[in-house]
Amino acid sequence: MKKVGIVMGSDSDLPIIQKGVDMLRALDIPFEVHVYSAHRTPVEARDFALNARENGFGALICAAGMAAHLAGAIAANTTLPVIGIPCKGGMMDGLDALLATVQMPTGIPVATVAINGAANAALLAAQIIAVEDAELARKLDDKRKADAAAVLAKDAGILERL
Ligand code: RP5
Fold first, then answer.
1. Prediction pTM value
2. Which of 32, 117, 143, 160 has the most CB atoms within 10 Å of its CB?
3. What pLDDT does 73 receive?
4. Whose CA is nearest to atom 14 of ligand 1?
5. Ligand 1: does its nearest atom lie under 6 Å from the Cβ of 9?
6. Which domains, from first to last, does the chain contain?
């Protein structure tokens, strides 16, 4: 199976990506986690992106806050699908990172999830990998069913909680 790469701009982003790591582990998807900054380590970030396909990655997740250029900088150097997680924090509490991540120029797409949306980023990466992996697609179907059953169980019990 192809790996998912998670890159964060700083180790201070670690608590945010934890839910994504947990999701990939729950789905038995191989992954790597790296700290590369678009600004502080631009050469390492570029080299990671340039080599990602031949290194066995199928999708990349990039988490960064504030002037969040990491996902775009990675996407500029690979045609693998790149998913951006804008991280909460800074003066604008993540809105700055959301806009920096989502407003990509035509030709270099970044699939941007919600601020701190690491679980959805991992699920989207899983769905990308699952295009060519029937077993993983089945796990994702099972998860959808389990999630729906959990909501319906709450529906059945909601009156007792009022
Ligand atoms: C961004 O700046 C990082 O992704 C992080 O969200 C934010 C702050 O980084 P540190 O100053 O904590 O290293 O580049």
1. 0.96
2. 117
3. 98
4. 9
5. yes
6. 3-133 (3.40.50.1970)
27-70 tens-digit pLDDT? 999 999 999 999 999 999 999 999 999 999 999 999 999 999 99
Distance 4 CA to ligand 1 centre (A): 22
Place of tokens 């996902």: 71
Amino acid at 117: G
Q: Which residues contact 12 (CB under 8 A, 6 or more apart)?
A: 89
Digit-coded pLDDT (tens) for 77-123: 999 999 999 999 999 999 999 999 999 999 999 999 999 999 999 99
Give the closest residue (by CA) to ligand 1 atom 2. Answer: 65
Nearest CA to ligand 1 atom 7: 65
Token couple for 65 = 């806050």
**Ligand 1 pocket member 73 (CB < 6 A):** no
The answer, yes or no, to whether any atom of ligand 1 lies below 6 A from the CB of 41, is no
Spatial neighbors of 66 by CB under 8 A, at least 6 apart, are: 89, 90, 96, 97, 100
